[in-house]
Amino acid sequence: xxxxxxxxxxxxxRWTELKSSMNTSKTVRLDDCNLSASHCKDIGSVLSxxxxxxxLTLNNNELGDSGVELLCKGLMTPSSNLQKxxxxxxxxxxxxxxxxxxxxxxxxxxxxxxxGDNKLGTSGVKVLCEGLMDPNCKLQKLQLEYCExxxxxxxxxxxxxxxxxxLKALNISNNKLGDAAVKVLCQGLMDPNCKLQSLHLxxxxxxxxxxxxxxxxLAMKPSLTDLSVGENKIGDAGVALLCQGLLNPNCKxxxxxxxxxRVSPAGCKxxxxxxxxxxxxxxxxxxxxxxxxxxxxLLCQGLxDPKAKLQALWIRECGLTTACCKSxxxxxxxxxxxRELHMGGNKIGDAGVEIIHEGLMNPNCNLQSLWLxxxxxxxxxxxxxxTILSSKPCLTxxxxxxxxxxxxxxxxxxxxxxxPNCKLQxxxxxxIYLSSEVDDELKVLEESKPGLKIVL
Length: 456
Description:
Layout: E1 2-6, H1 12-22, E2 27-31, H2 37-49, E3 55-57, H3 64-75, E4 84-86, H4 97-106, E5 112-114, H5 121-132, E6 141-143, H6 153-163, E7 169-171, H7 179-189, E8 198-200, H8 208-220, E9 226-228, H9 235-246, E10 255-257, H10 265-277, E11 283-285, H11 292-303, E12 312-314, H12 325-334, E13 340-342, H13 349-361, E14 369-371, H14 382-391, E15 397-399, H15 406-417, E16 426-428, H16 436-448, E17 453-455
Parallel strand pairs: 1-2, 2-3, 3-4, 4-5, 5-6, 6-7, 7-8, 8-9, 9-10, 10-11, 11-12, 12-13, 13-14, 14-15, 15-16, 16-17
């Protein structure tokens, strides 16, 4: 049994009802429920009595350090078997970390700890690392995003990476670390004992200087399959260095996130080579980089290579126009592995959709999710989109938000949604002005097709 409650104010009677449910639940989620330290005493009691409770999520509640202390008392009892704990944005400080350290050092059952958006600071994270390095700790996933870490924390994190082979995922994004700190971190990542699979370093004040160290890790550690360095000013020089490691045969990267990294068409040349040779790579995000049409042309050359196995590509807000759509269409018509294409925020226009339509209709195209929000579209392209919907049952998600489709265009889409070949599960139409008549038609259509969700 699971208990999943979000954004609900807790009256005394409602809380009494939920306490009873928590005692028999395997998963409890109470996000944004205006909980405080007073509620934590009851939750701590549940933790100490419900041996089946495996996951507890309390994000966005004002629990405070005193609340976490009460939770930890429950977690420390022998009967508690909790495996996953989310305490994001709970108004925590370094004062709660000594209690969490005790849990980490005594409860090998705890394998995930999410503490993002709390002001733990340098001192708090140091205390957490002490618990992390305890032989009893078997933590696999640690999330410390927006926790006010400093470069001083990376020495202990490095030691933890060297000694804690159980740790598989580390997210320290949105902390002011810098290149020197990441260099220290990479020393731990290179240790034979380190088995990290996922590393997120978004918005950590990195430059191209860090990319040489990260490249060496990629070349040496086949265990690292998920790397995110988004929102760092690494530029084309940084991408070139990363690609050296990515192209190493030892590298088995699957997910690479380079959003808002100041990548230009020059960087796309290196990435194109990676796409055409690295069969393990299945997800690539380049959101918010000025790739422009020449850069997209280079990426498409790599994507058309038979060795390219990319499944999801994010190229939102990359300065693309109609000019690159022929190349994108060619990719859609030849690359059978691509399942998701996110290209909103590019001015491809109706002419671009008409060109992409040809690739989407190709029997080789197996695209499931297409995002075209804010692409300067009008009703003129909806005939082509309607044809795709009624002809490609593989397409299950379509986003057309913030386009001037109006009643005329949406009515065309409605007709295709009624077609038996259409298997669309989600149609997103945010910020599109529609008459009450068409709005009602969409609601009736949604009710008539149980598997379809229309987001307005």
